[in-house]
Fold these 2 entries.
Entry 1:
Amino acid sequence: MTQPASAARQDAPNLVKTPPQQEPKGSGPAFGLRLDLRNLSLLGVLAALIVVGGFTKPDEFLAISNLQLVLTQASIIGVVTVGMTFVITSGGIDLSVGAMVALASVWATTLATQEYGFAGILFTAIVVGVGCGLVNGVLIAYGGLVPFIATIAMLASARGLALQITDGKTQIVTVDSVLDLGVKDAYVLGIPPLVLIFAAVVVIGWLVLNRTTFGRRTFAVGGNPEAARLAGIDVRRQRLYLYVLSGLCCGIAAFMLIVLAGSGQNTNGNLYELDAIAAAIIGGTLLSGGRGTVVGSVLGVLIFTTITNIFALNNLETAVQQIAKGAIIVVAVLVQHHTLRRRGQT
Amino acid sequence: MPEFSAPSRRGILFGTAAVSAGALITGCTSNEPEKKDSAAPANAPVADGAPGKAVTIGFAGPQADHGWLNAINDNAKQRAKKYSDVTLEITEGSNDTAAQIGQVQTLINKKVDVLVILPADGKALTQVGLQAMKAGIPVINLDRIFASPQAYRCWIGGDNYGMGLNAGNYIGEQLKDKPDAKVVELAGVDNLELTKQRTQGFDDALKNYPNIRKVARQAADFTVESGQAKMAQLLQAQSDFDALWNHDDDQGVGALRAIAQAGRKDFIMVGGAGAKSAMDAIKADNSVLKATVLYPPTMAASAIDIARAVAQGKGVGGMAEMEIPASITLYSAVVTKDNVAQYLPTGFI
């Protein structure tokens, strides 16, 4: 598991009504308790799922290889969700993450790029992700577009461009050094490299959000942009950076997807935007901004991936999977709210 | 493409289509026309490559966001280019029903001579097919079938049930001497009817082999990403099985990747659709993939042939009928190492 045990201090304070000047240095006890409970209830849901998995399919579910599989499958959408957490915390939304992953993955797997091997693919994926994020950021921060509109436009055009580049074809990767990252030989102490990348992104994301000026500004912009502006924060530049950050995460995720699937396809990253938003919200990030938690988002992603894994191991039909997934989302959120309400903290 | 080696009912149907197609490609009907003439009435002209009345064919297909659909568009365009008397009016592909209806209506207004429509959703586009037929424009319905036979002059398409059936029978023959054999199914998009038909055919075929049991079935999304993810789960869930039937070669790229990542070699895999990458793998014979069941995109080229023949009032070579048949179902041939060389040219990228 990637989440640190010390979840209590992982979140900066809620600044919805607090001017940034009065921002406390760390999480106060009240905040700590609230967020701790929130993540504890998510951990409870995850634990319950693990019990169900272990009970229904003990041999398959509890195997080391299955733990590796679940974490690997969580890692790509997990990286995207970390970027999404920042954006939502700042009061924005990024609907283009799936399309950015698709575009970055097909651009990075074109024949020309493959000539430059590992570095060429990695570099292109990240540059394309950052580039798309930059366009999003400029449109939103300086063009005055609503994030919903700007990123939905990016969704459409990036998917279109990805389709045009591939011409609907699957671009198979032939660079062995990239493909080798996905096989068992590349595991470090039993941990797949993709999971290590995910863990690194989570740790860095957590540090940036909770321990840096950049993170405090993100909360401030999401909580009250006007107050943030009065406090001397360049709100527009901060927003620009946040969408670039989301694009960067998508570039990294695209590279990870290339490693895993061994190809670039314009359908890559399908519906990542919904999965990432759902995971962030379940994790306790407030859609209206001002509150966000990286650890919660990671738990949200892990809950989703574990559900999918248990369903597949038990050979459930697609329709049943979808119904149950919806129900579990509702339960997860209800459990959270109920836990908080009992403490009078909602 | 020729399908003469396996004469079944479908084989005969597709074979006749292939005969006419072959004749049209090469334009070599002059070599042996006498044999057919003895059976066919003298006044039944047969479509061939010789230029005839100028024909404008309107083509409306779905968005080519997938290898197979892309190959459909390519096949139609390439075939239309071969005829000096054919002009192809092609619309931008769309997966949006309303948008596609609008596109077909535009083609009707342009008064094309004949329409080839591969609907994003057959049932939803039935009305616009009826509209075209009422306007006097014959409709060639490609693959996804309209709800009413009144909405098309001729239907040509693949056989999803037959795909499953042939995949199941192939696997059955491979495993018939193995007691208590287990198979796993990696299906396509579960909310498409074609996926249910493929599964039904597969299940029906397995009934012929009581020693085989299907132990797991999961649906993917026809994409490499979903193929990899779902296959990785299936491999985790099933530590031991003998054969895998994967509905689609595009998602098969991902499935093969997951199998390689897990280091599994203990079963045989049968794909579906007929992608070039799958045929290359079958030819190389260095992976678990041993066969793929065809769902050939060449049907789009045949649809152009039929559309041209209908517009010119001609019939099919090799058949006694004066008219183009009302429906043509392709044969889902099984491509293995033995016959892959024959099919490789039809493999799509």
Entry 2:
Amino acid sequence: MAKIATREAYGQALAEFGEVYKDIVVLDADLSKSTRTEIFKKKFPDRFFNIGIAEQDLMATAAGLATCGKIPFASTFAVFAAGRAYDQVRNSIGYPHLNVKIGASHAGVSIGEDGASHQMLEDIALMRVIPGMVVLSPSDAASTYECVRLAIEHEGPVYIRLGRLGVEEIYKKGELKLELGKGIVLQKGTDVGILATGLMVHEAIKAAKMLQDEGISVYLVDMPCIKPIDIDLILDVAKMTGCIVTAEEHNILGGFGSAVSEVLIQNYPIPVKMVGVNDEFGRSGKPEDVLKYYRLTAEEIVNKAKEVMKMKK
Amino acid sequence: MDKAKELELKKIATEIRKSIIIQTAEAGSGHPGGSLSGVEILTYLYFVEMNIDPKNPKDPKRDRFVLSKGHASPLLYAVLAEKGFISKEELKGFRQIYSSLQGHPDMKKVPGVEMSTGSLGQGLSVANGMALAAKLDKKDYRVYVLLGDGEIQEGQIWEAAMTAAHYKLDNLTAFLDHNGLQIDGKITEVMSPEPVDEKFRAFGWHVIKIDGHDFNQIEKAVNEAKTIKGKPTIIIAETVKGKGVSFMENEVGWHGTAPNKEQAQKALEELQKQYEALEVQG
């Protein structure tokens, strides 16, 4: 089966929704070939603005468009969207709660060869602490399409985390229906919960199979919506399994695992192990090699699952 | 501009100056210097030029104003109160807990505030976005933005300057409140942005230089900007920081310091005398 990167699905979704929602405008910062907003640009050249290599201007221009009723999708690499333009996202988009959607591609280490300067591992942390910011992290093409739809339908700022690497289909487009603030139960189980987001959902699916082959029952959840987070579902997993592993292509500090832990520690404290990058910057290499180097793998999820099961009271 | 009109505007400007002093004195904080320097510019825009209606602050056809130098909030609030967007009573709450008048303007809390500002360098980009939206929607409203001369040290201003020229935003007029001072001293000593006129011209803007306290020059410049096609206009307004209050004029210390009770009293007496002198004229 052909693999599709979530950034590719993002570009396609924008072009598709652009037909229906005439207020959608797309802005890019000289990366439209990479963020795939080029697909929208070709279809709707009048509603596409290339701001050049100027991410601060990109974000605040999007804010100005939003004050006039447009639905701007400000698109660039995650490292620039959440990092370089953080102040603009915070002050000109988040604080006035403007209807700007941030399409942040090339997140995580899986962009590979470009190395640490371009591998964004802090964006979930940075974006989820902005009051009112919705943070979405789709795992495949269909969930990306749904995330774009949710972003359009939600009034307010939304950050969509996208990857460069082609990934397999998990869901069929048209069959998946996402809700804001809801996770997707892939299977229920009783021995250990695995909650994953983005690219790591694919590894989590493999890990769940490996664990099941050893007779371990796994409650497996895809969490495309990091904020607002699905508290009810997290608690259901916690109560069913008594221990949880989180998996994300992000620094384990402040990221998805932290968000899950915040829910657990305040409501139903149970042991948690996190799979993610352990407070390090990325490095260059082939995407698959980099993912292995940082142990963003199914095998590591299996190891952590076994560890966390031993911690159950 | 006829004399009667000019006199009326001067009176409004003096009232606004009083309000800036009262707001900052009551709050015990705020930025009087750079608020006083922009008084004539905002007075002209709000009382002559802009198509705005306090009863319908969200009218899609309205002209937009962005206060990029958000620390001049007492100026904006005073103008909005004088125009009827907010009550004058509200001004007493400036910077106080439970008041909607935040230290820097919040568009979600105050009707008539078009953008939440305060982090310098972002307002020009926002104004670009508004001007782009007008072009997309084929609406003929205009967008105005007030920049500080220290503020243009922010790199984003020049990103936005490029964008405005690139997209030929002739429905955008920027004012530069060129008072020459910033918190740490003279702009030319801290980090000189000069020559600002040549810089903006090089970036593809139409540039007009005026005395920013002269209503006739402001009017002429605003009208000229409306005739310019295919490029944005910047009106470089030479102003005096602390204008109208003798002991505040050109004193860098009044950038972000509120007057105490006695100082406020003294300032208000001076402004009252200015007002009375205007009354004698008309």
